[in-house]
């Protein structure tokens, strides 16, 4: 019938039984008359174990070697899965990222895909092989293995789907699809049938773990329809595709939250031109992903400049800024990390004006104090204390009608 | 001072402490003014664990996928070792077999090296990098990973030493060198200072586990001097190099033994031309390594044909021969496997004529019955019952003066 790209995450491949389950699923898809390319992550906690081994050997493992090391995880799962499929009587072949033609830039540990040279993939498809590809990895111009960052296998899958012009890209995971908010926090969260690329992108960036945001970006650029679903049942999941306004579920599609947020505040910054550029110039050298920035005017030509980033990056940022603080005559750099970011996302927001005030009232009603605010076209994010996060998500889910009606 | 190729086996890299130990050893060699290329095996029992995983997934794992799977073991140890060396302040880079330019034929699971394209190795040496190379693996013409068979890392090391014209090839292992016989069976076994390529080759083929025989073959062809020594101390080990008759230690250099021996007997084979060819033609299709062949004349134009091979291969051979037996009108095929092969090896044998009789007398004196015999220019091997193996080796060590004089 068609050419289907599937991606199976680490929890779907955690042990022998699960590998056999995935193999059966792939064989089913093949026997339904499709050609199949399956992209795999490393088994269960393999990647974490490898990272642990590296840290025991070296405090700051060099990134090139770390990429080499981590890339073995997917190569183990791909060969075992290919064996399982062959044992079920279908032709299968495993390919590493480089063999599958995934060419990346040179940034070890967070390389970006430049191109998929799909010759080998096409040859193996012509020979009627089911192809198993190691996700999360590619090769740079020096023929060295690179990795695409956590969750990179999603991006591998979408890139391959685009390169071979697949009819469908299915992302198999351990949940049933994309929910309006995290079902672990809000048990009555609604499963979304359809989400637009833009909404999914914001949800992913703002903390929904179900897809890596770069994979969504790529899917949007190449118009790849992505079906997010569970590898443990046959339920339909969530389709991520182009926005068509008739499909809006409501004004707000979903709520994301993220506990990996720290606030870095530089106190007593002299109010002179170029100072902010000096501060953020230093941060950008570290390749830190800044989320929100707030500058608050203070007395006596002094400002406080605050920004948020991930907790790991906050420590790096602080170390780098200690020097700058002295240089520019600021007072100090302080990190706060018992925080969470709660965001509402919805394309409908563009045509409704009272969303922000409804959000802030709902939070106030739930006794949640707001520390920082940022907005974009289709999102509003607030920083709150981490132990108020659950209350905040629940209040917003109720306010914006994101609960299952049962 | 020079360019040194070192090889570290799995037991030398079994855990974090041992990896750090090897890293220190390599760094020492570098700081003594040498350029270093180190070839590594997989950590400890990694390969066995991967094989176990594969067998749980598939009864007969396909060899291409098995090679892919097993090749990850060396890639893990090489990256961890490169990290450890960098943490000690020296430049280091890890390269997989394909990256190091190890080109092989297409025979998965026992590929042979065709060529080492050493450009990348030379480039990294010029940049003053210590190079860590994954042993045991290469790449075939289809850009697929192949493995070189058990112990293949020794062969990787010698091939690389030849390709870069190294001044020395050191094989680090968990024993102090090559012994006249197995010290676990004969505690007073003598450590050999020098062994010729031919003697080492025979010892390796006949069961001495310390070097893969193909590595010795390769060393002989390319005249690479190989120093076998322990990674746990700084003692001098055994140098394997070209034979110069002045260096003979005695008539017999060493004794090898091997418990992985089975005898396959085809009973009642009609004595007609072409029958032996039919039998061994069938066996050769299976790529089974035949060791000895004995044909004994019987009554009524019938022979028994017996041969030895490894225990795993004997079962395969039997299955294949059942069909042939019917076809040629022979009686039956029977396997015996409680056997051991004991061999004496020595270049001095060529100029002495009474070695065989001394060997058989010594065995008779120790109450050891001989089942089969085979000889070559510098070896005599006998098949004995496995529980007589130790007695046989001890008697021969005494007869041929292979014990330490202390």
UniProtKB/TrEMBL annotation, chains A, B:
Its EC number is 2.7.2.4. Coiled coil: none annotated. Gene3D superfamilies: Acetylglutamate kinase-like, VC0802-like. It catalyses: L-aspartate + ATP = 4-phospho-L-aspartate + ADP. Keywords: Amino-acid biosynthesis, ATP-binding, Diaminopimelate biosynthesis, Kinase, Lysine biosynthesis, Nucleotide-binding, Repeat, Transferase. GO terms for molecular function: aspartate kinase activity; ATP binding. ATP binds at residues 7-10, 173-174, 179, 184, 209-210. The keyword Membrane does not apply. GO terms for cellular component: cytosol. Pathway: Amino-acid biosynthesis; L-threonine biosynthesis; L-threonine from L-aspartate: step 1/5; Amino-acid biosynthesis; L-lysine biosynthesis via DAP pathway; (S)-tetrahydrodipicolinate from L-aspartate: step 1/4; Amino-acid biosynthesis; L-methionine biosynthesis via de novo pathway; L-homoserine from L-aspartate: step 1/3. Substrate binds at residues 47, 74. One of its GO terms (biological process) is diaminopimelate biosynthetic process. SUPFAM superfamilies: ACT-like, Carbamate kinase-like. Residues 264-342, 344-406 form the ACT domain. Catalyzes the phosphorylation of the beta-carboxyl group of aspartic acid with ATP to yield 4-phospho-L-aspartate, which is involved in the branched biosynthetic pathway leading to the biosynthesis of amino acids threonine, isoleucine and methionine. Tetramer consisting of 2 isoforms Alpha (catalytic and regulation) and of a homodimer of 2 isoforms Beta (regulation). PANTHER family: ASPARTATE KINASE (PTHR21499), ASPARTOKINASE (PTHR21499:SF3). Belongs to the aspartokinase family. This is Aspartokinase. It comes from Peptostreptococcus stomatis DSM 17678. The lineage of its organism: Bacteria, Bacillati, Bacillota, Clostridia, Peptostreptococcales.
